Amino acid sequence: MSSGRKEDQTILMGGRKRLQRVILFCLLNFSTLIVPGTGLTLRTCRISYNVALCVKTKLTAVPRDIPSTVTGFDLSLNRISRIQISDFKNLLALEKLDLNFNNISQIDNGAFASLICLKTLNLNNNRLVKLGEDLFNGLTNLTELRVNRNKIQIVASTAFQSLQSLKLLDISSNKLRHITNVHLILQQLPHLRTLSIRNNNLTTFDSWELTNSSIELSYLDVSLNPFTVFRITADVFPSLIWLNLGGSSRKYHMKWEVHNKTFLSRVSTLDISGLQMDIGDMKTLLQTVNSSLESLRMNEMKHNLKELISISCTIPTMSKLQLRRNYKRISPVSSDVFKLCINLTELDLSNNHIKNIQDNAFRPLKYLRILSLGQNMLSSVPEATRNLAKLAELDLNNNKISSLGCDDFTNLTMLRELSLNQNSISAVKECVFKDLFRLQVLKLQSNHISTLNNAFKNPLPNLRQLLLHTNKLTALKRGEFQGLESLSNLSLHHNQIKELEGGCFTGLTNLTTILLQNNHITKDTLTESVFKDLINLRRLDLRDNCIKYENTLALREPPFSHLSRLEMLAIPSQHCKRKSELPYNLLQGLTNLLFFNIRDIQLISLDSDMFTFTPQLQTLDMSSNDIRNLSSELFSPVRNLKSLYISRISLGSLDFLVDANLTQLEFLQARKNQFSVISKDIIYSTPALLYLDLQGNSFTCDCDNAGFIQWVQSNNKTQVFDAYNFVCNYPSDLKGMKLLDFDIRFCSVDVEFICFVSTTCTILLFMVLSYTYHILRWQLVYAYYLFLAFLFDTKNKNKQAPSQYDAFISYNVHDEPWVMGELLPKLEGEQGWRLCLHHRDFEPGKPIIDNVTDSIYGSRKTICVISHKYLESEWCSREIQVASFRLFDERKDVLILVFLEEIPASLLSPYYRLRKLVKRKTYLSWPRAGEHTELFWQKLCQALRSREDFGEDRFLLTVMDRPHEPV
């Protein structure tokens, strides 16, 4: 832009001769002389809930067009290698920055200095080798920092100096190697509560190297380090409550040297998964936390697990035990494994390949409330669970259970959640759940259940969630769920249901969500009686069924007429390929519907009254149909619509928005349609629009889109997703060009600049005219009258009407005595000529100039009685001008000059036309007639009789003495 301004200045200095070129240049380029406003549309990212999302966009540098108001910035999964000092300088409101999974190897000092509000910074999965001096300067409010899975080897002494508010630091999976690097970190972070330094190839842990660290860590993860010794000789972790000592994959045996039990006296959660040490050291370790331990994790252990379980269960405070992925070390589960675990309330035995559990294995666990046996190889519900009278949660997912018996859950009257998903159950019996009166959640999804056998007719009064999806159900019978009076969530999707008997949902008066997508439901299945009992239903999902209607005729019994509280309805269908329509009253009764999804149902039209029953509708998805045209009347009942999805419907225009009155619309997605022009009217018809997605349309690069292009680049409210990648398909010579690269300067000129130029020109013109009038006033007046005479002469010169008078007398009022006393009696009284005099013969009420012109052209001759007063008269000047025009334009001898006074040539000089006439024509002089007045009147009479042939005018009069020729 600066070069453009210099060029303008050069042109302006070129002189007045090039003024026109300068003005034209300014008119075409004025828009480029103004710094464009920062629009909300971004080149590679998008904004969602005030977060800039640039995920997986192949960026190699931080984009610079991010609005300064964003509070979140996600740059993960890109190719950025360097963070520069200017990358974030304008993002003063940023609170969360995610740089995960890039190639960052260099961060300039001060790169984060302006991020005074930043609270979370993620630098995971990059290539940082060193954390340099003052790297995190300015991050005084940062509370969470993650730099795991880099290659960090060196930590500068002041790297974390500015992070006075930091509470969580994850620097795992790097190459710190020595605990002194950790010491440098800790001594700068007085408020740190969570530290993860797992997998850093640390070989020793000596507390004396942390003696100067005055921190109160609560959570410490040092797992996956090949420690050979773990030595604590001072109370450096007085507030530690969570400790992960999990071992590495290397076959190192760690030596435990913590002889003072008070050093870890507050640890309540301990993870020693995969830890390898002598059994004696293991006992010592567990004794160290004997007074506070509540939760112990011993996954993937290499030791004699039964012995470790016995040791750990002697800790009186321990209540939670996790034993995952121990495989053969715990299978089968015998009766002596947990004989000392009488205080356990939670036991996790998932993923151990357990096939058998002895009937008395869990008998000692009288207080057990949560038991996880998922991802094992059990073929039936273990009888051992029947001894757990206080059990509230039982997880048996992902086993090989094929059937359920009536006694499988006997005595489990306290059970609240039961997970049987991902097994091989083919049927359930009516008696299976008879004792589960307190059951709230039942998971039976992903089995082979084909019939329910009245299993839910018996009361399960507290069941709220029932998951039956991904089974083989084909029909739902009347009263199938009548015992589930408290059920609120029913999942039946991905079955083979094609029959819904009337009343199949009887009793489910508290149901709020039912998922029926991906079944074989047809329009004939959907009757009014099916859903009439679901009076509190909020969400109904019927996607991927075969619900097709052939016309828009009204249904006699609309299927949803009783669902007045329904808020979400989805009926898309990919199973049927034939074209469909929707009855205009399909939605009758849905007065509170907020979300309606009819995506991909081969729909060809929508009745204009479709939404008259849904005045509260806020989200409408009708994408992937063949509607082609939408009328504004369709949307008139839904004035609260906020989100509209109309992608892939072969839409040729968005003009329907102009009159649709969707003033609340905030989100519009219209991808892959057939429109090519977005007019200003469309833009201004949706004033609340925040997000616009028009990907995949074929735009026209011409002035019809100029308003849209300008709006995209300048508006600060609406985000037009991926606008910088919109491509032109028309005209052919611009095909493939980016829409926003189209030059719109020739489409419009800045109105303000036009006003400026117009005003300037008007003022200059006024000044020039004022100056000219002041200096050349009389010359202008003369030119004006000359022009008027010319106009009237041109107007009348071709008139062929016969002459009314023989002569028109042009004279000044001061010469009237001579005219009335000498001329008039002689010519009209004695000789009988018809003369025209202005005071006598002009038509009253007619403009003077018209009277003059008509009289001259209505007379054969014009006699000009010239004197000094005549020359000073404006009207006399007009009369002689009209007569002279007639003389020269008609080429007729119509003018007779009579001089009453001697007039020197010098006085005739200002009267150019009269001077010219005197030089060319003969004239009569009254003073020179002297005593020979009879000769004067004879010559005048001869002139009046002469023919009007211009070629002979010089021979008509006897040459009289002329005045001297004007110089």
TrEMBL record:
The chain crosses the membrane at residues 21-42, 776-792. One of its GO terms (biological process) is innate immune response. Residues 803-944 form the TIR domain. One of its GO terms (cellular component) is plasma membrane. One of its GO terms (molecular function) is signaling receptor activity. This is Toll-like receptor 13. Pfam families: LRR_5, LRR_8, TIR. It is found in: Membrane. It is a single-pass type I membrane protein. InterPro entries: Cys-rich_flank_reg_C (IPR000483), Leu-rich_rpt (IPR001611), Leu-rich_rpt_typical-subtyp (IPR003591), LRR_5 (IPR026906), LRR_dom_sf (IPR032675), TIR_dom (IPR000157), Toll_tir_struct_dom_sf (IPR035897). The keyword Signal applies. PROSITE patterns: LRR (PS51450), TIR (PS50104). Keywords: Glycoprotein, Immunity, Inflammatory response, Innate immunity, Leucine-rich repeat, Membrane, Receptor, Repeat, Signal, Transmembrane, Transmembrane helix. Signal peptide: none annotated. Belongs to the Toll-like receptor family.
